[in-house]
Amino acid sequence: MCGRFALDDHVNSSITDFVTSTGRHHNEWSSDWQGRWNIKPTQDIVLIRDSEKDDEIRVETARWSLVPPWSETLTPRFPTFNARSEGIATKATWKKPLKANRCIIPASGYYEWTGEKGAKQPWWIHPEQGILGFAGLYSWWQDRSRPDDDPNRWVLTATILTMPTVDELASIHDRNPLTLPEDLWEHWMDRSIVGDQKLVDEAVRAGRDESSALLFHKVSPFKAGDDSIALTEPLNSL
């Protein structure tokens, strides 16, 4: 699973470089993301997606926890910040956004924990350089309690796909986020491709190599409200 991750402010230039490399039109990304080191579900994250209306790449903030359009509230009764890749095309919550609403969720790295409750050891898992691109799904949720002309009536929400862990990370957790190489980001987002289990399985195979190359080390335990780059420092260096 992936229940905490980080996104530093280098994402601004990384996203600009990626979008520019596609040669496609894109929305005006404000490039003002402030680095955060302890992002949790329901908080804002950044996502990259194809526009529903034209051949444009869009970079936007979204609420981390996908809310299906048919949900009566912004907080479903079950967790939706992660989506298991296995059998995803048959699940009611995921099968519709899988068809066309796929996105990339950038991250600097993420955390997992080992050990027993009350004495859990956090680990920082990250690439040697650059940013990660998690395979994600997104959905628009309509707050019908707001007027039609209220800009907050529509809420963009998203989830991160997970996959069975790779051998290199198995001692930390039995699952890890589905991380795609940058040369597959556009393919994953492409709305002209109807998303199905085959597409997800292909992504998982590509994600295994990406996850196998990640670095990891122990970090000091931290609280839910902590937010500093110090959270990622190796335990033995503090």
TrEMBL record:
Enzyme Commission numbers on file: 3.4.-.-
Enzyme's top EC category: hydrolase
Keywords: Covalent protein-DNA linkage, DNA damage, DNA-binding, Hydrolase, Lyase, Protease
PANTHER family: ABASIC SITE PROCESSING PROTEIN HMCES, DC12-RELATED
Protein family (similarity comment): Belongs to the SOS response-associated peptidase family.
The protein's name: Abasic site processing protein
Species in which this protein is naturally found: Microbacterium nanhaiense
